[in-house]
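lol ok so funny story. i was supposed to be doing the assay writeup but got distracted and ended up predicting the structure for this chain instead. priorities right. anyway since i did it might as well share w the group, maybe its usefull for someone
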Amino acid sequence: MNFVQNTPIFNKINISNIQFRSNPAVYTGTFEPSKDSFITYPNTDINALAQSARTNPKIAEILAEYKIPFKFNSKELEKLQQGHLKDTRLVAAKMYSALPDDLKSEVNLKDLQEAAMFHDYGKALIPEKILNKEGKLDKREKEIMELHSELGYELLKGVGVNQNVLQMIKYHHQTPDGNGYPIAGDDFSPSIGAQILSAADKYSALREERSYKPAMRKEEALKILQEDVKSGLIAPEIYTALEKVV
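and the output, tada:
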């Protein structure tokens, strides 16, 4: 079932009756993805990923179109693994634990956690001067930054990651109203897992210090996401699960 604003599922849940489920099934330990127990792909180490990037013709095509020189930034990837990806995975797994049962049944928790740990891997191919720019990105830089979803999809497709995880990675910046990226067509709607990942990703990013902004307090981050609900960018049930666990 797809989870979009114009479907009955938005109206079938009494949000006030959603009960918080404590102790989500989250693995804690070393955060190198190839070593996490819930990740079943042996070829997600840095060397295998770099080789996948070099030999993928679609990645070469995307980089050539935007005149981006090939560079696999392993240091940036390692930084993401230890910080933002770990944080996003923990938030996403906790959000899953707070969903009502009928929505939980639409999500594979292991796949969700893998997608959260992999979702920004495409940034290893984004030029560092854009990725860590202190000021606002211009139009061209923004277009290049937005390539990371599709680049991550292609990168991880090359090491055998399953399609459910890949779809969440590719479309974690898609929105229920169809205004996200990459362009997916009028009849596309992001899965519940992708929407959980999107909200967890944005919340984690807002709470972190970045080169272009200071870290936000929890209340500030939630207020921004509340506005996203009003704008149709986040489904109310997804936001409620986030609010309950943070």
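The radius of gyration is 17 Å. The mean pLDDT is 85.
back to the writeup now i swear
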